[in-house]
Predict the 3D structure of the following.
Amino acid sequence: MASGGVKINTLNDISLDILIPEIIMTIGMLMIIIIPNMGDAKIRLPLSKIHIPILIGGTRFTQVNNPIIPSIISIITFGLASLMSLWMLLNDNTGVMEPIIEVNQFTSLFSMIFTFALLLTSISSLYRLPSQANAKIPDDSDSEESLNSKITILMNNRRQVDFYILLLMAGLGMCLVAKSTHLFMLFVCLELASLSSYVLVAFNKESAIGGEAGTKYFIVGSVASAIGIYGMSLLYIWNGNLEISSLTNAWSQMDSLDPFAGIGIGLMLVAFGFKVGAAPFHLATPDAYSGASSPIAGLLATASKAMGFVAMMRILLIITIPENGEEAYWMIALAIISVITMTWGNFAALTSTNPKRMLAYSSVAHAGYMLAALAAIGTGLGDEQSNALILTAIIFHLTILVLFKFGAFMVLTLIENEGNSHNMSGLHGLARRDPIIASSMFIFMLSLAGVPPLSGFLSKLLMINGIVNISAGTGSMASVAIWSWASSVNMIFWLAMAIVINSAISLFYYLRVVMIMFFEDPITNKPLARSLYLRLIIIFCAVLTLLFGIGPLSESLIETVNEAAQSFL
């Protein structure tokens, strides 16, 4: 038993209760494969006339002959996995399966983030990739428009199983990345999620833009992964073991930086930099977001980005962080990359006329903010409390990003069904066509910009406050005179200033969306599709974006996130 009565599971116990979300997703994947294929097939026993039903194949049973079944199974699976992750988080379930798996509040929180984002993806895809039970076969009497419509419906029906299996594979990989304590396990799981993401980006292969986006994303991602795997091989040559605890001990015992170790870590950060969308590894990100369907773009901007940061934090804050208060060797490089990333992302978003590309560059900018916070920890100037504060801010931002970033992509999902998601004109006059959806998008845009009292403002405030505290070398700014403080701050203070300046720049393109929705004339007076469940989820995300910005709910979430950060450190 661990302190506080928490049960610790080891591999010798062969206990699988710490992998409940992953087991649920595995079962869901099997159900998606088996249930839609259940039928009246039989096999004959050799040398007899006895036929035994095997229930797989043949003519499908009426009860399972419905293309919506895979989406229902996926929604139930991710809903259960998300609830179990939340239960494990609140009950502080802790366990290890040495040497590859560790479960604590940090891993449970990120499992909840991943599964909740995938739940939103599944619900949104009900409307973006709709199925129809009684689809009609095209015939010669159909017009061209009717013919295309029938073919699209038939294609969507056939692709339901493939789509949701890919989502479940991505979810399985993401959750295991959060729990991995072995670099080989971490990289295999990251690639499981990544390969699924590449296919999901190019899933709408009938459109030219989807195939192009998937190809670019796959090529750049494959090169980044190859570089990362080469870096991992150098670490193995250097240490002979890829367990994170073993690498941490070996790193702390080095008198000077070993070339194999330094180059290996640097190459691995290239792979993780691609996953988080850091410059200059972000070049395929805008094309991937704009070519993928809006739900998949939302998944890349939230869960996939969080997965990349989990892997990066394992490397930077566990293996390579100095224990004696010295500056980490990667600090200056990461600080420079963070400023370039946030500035590049915001200025590119200013000129974007495609809302999905604009949100893609916005996602790049947000990656820069979090990289700046990681660089502040690498200065070695902060104590354990200061470092925990900054890590809390990063994790809090990744948590609430699922609400307002994914919320914006869900609004675009409604517009995408009209064929207007690749141009700002689809948002023209949205307030007149659908005031509730426009108001929700308004909340999402302000939260992305960091306007108080929304949750996006709170996360940026926590990051800026943590960086300033570390740069000034004090836990409180209130007792420091302004001129005395200005002369005493470390150069890392300017990372906080970069976040403030870039947040101000981002207001221009976020408010442009607001202006378009409320002051431009709509291109059509036709109301948006009803899409009941998608609308309810959008409103739910907008309400939580407000509640997590100020009040008791925000305090409770920050406390939970802080406990997760402490368990990580």
Remarks:
- The mean pLDDT is 85.
- The longest strand covers residues 42-44.
